[in-house]
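Here is my example:
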Amino acid sequence: MRKTKVVLIGLGRIASSLEKDPYRSKPCTHSGVLFSPWGKRNFEFLGGIDPNPDKREKFRKQWKLPEHVTFSDLDHLSSKYKPDLAIISSPSESHYRNALEWIERGVKNFLIEKPVCETFLQAKDLEKLSRKKGIRIWVNHERRYHPKYVWAKRVLDSQKYGPIRTIRASVLTSALAPGRAFQGRTGPLFHDGTHAVDLIHWFLGKPDRIRSSLTRRKGIPIEDRALAFLEYKSGPAVFLEAGGARKYFQFEMDIMTSEARILLSNDGMRLFVSKPSKKYKGFNSLTEVSFPEKSFLGSNPFMNLYAEIRNVLTGKSVRMTGDIGENLGIMELLHKIKTVAEIRTVS
């Protein structure tokens, strides 16, 4: 079977360099998949593009590649290169422009890093264009491809432990040692909070009421902290915090149903179910039980994402877990949280 021809736009952290992190489960980058034994059997790497010469050089050294496979921009990449898939892992503010450039070149399949675009209006235009031209766009919210998050989604949909009552979602980062979240115009709500909002939208859909607030530092256009309270007519309520000026990074989804608590976190997964209490006679208490390990997915989210893409492109499947259409809903929710927010400015 013919390999899927790919180009990689953006050669930085999520594209490549995070693969050097000794603590992360591998592969944890796009290049980690593409240059894995499985990736080499299924994908043909045509080239990588990045305007930064230092990043291009580090990328080549990391993967032991010749100089002629990296380029400073699209114009230096030969027009004879006809990729089946364009992977956009450039900074958020470049996603929209990069996608339009490759659509103009006739590419029909894209994998774009989150957030799919810098603004809701850009995402809306890209979604409209994809429908008009028959373009497939995956967006990398990798937790959708994590077997334990997939298990949680199935259990919540089945209401095995009753309906969702509340969700507390936290994506906490540090403004004291800023990363990409505190550069440009996206801020921690769009840059990192998109992971939590994606899961909220995946589990519950569109809320019926949104109340929110943003805290900003004087002279800085993006927020230090975003808070939101989302309400659903069906009953659930969601508390969201993004940013928060913490001296650490923490991702956590604390989901309370009528009969259980599911804790999904970067620190691990825990499950508590309602059982007769050993502390209070006549009451039930939440009792921790082992978190299920079995799943129809493999253990690595990046590999699962690329396996889905490969299956679709080779005609084995039509299933897309997180396409541009659904991501338009996620971007709309992020946009509404931001635009209806009460703004507080601090020194």
Notes: Residues 181 and 191 are 5 Å apart (CA to CA). The longest strand covers residues 164-172. The chain is about 30% helix and 30% strand. The radius of gyration is 21 Å.
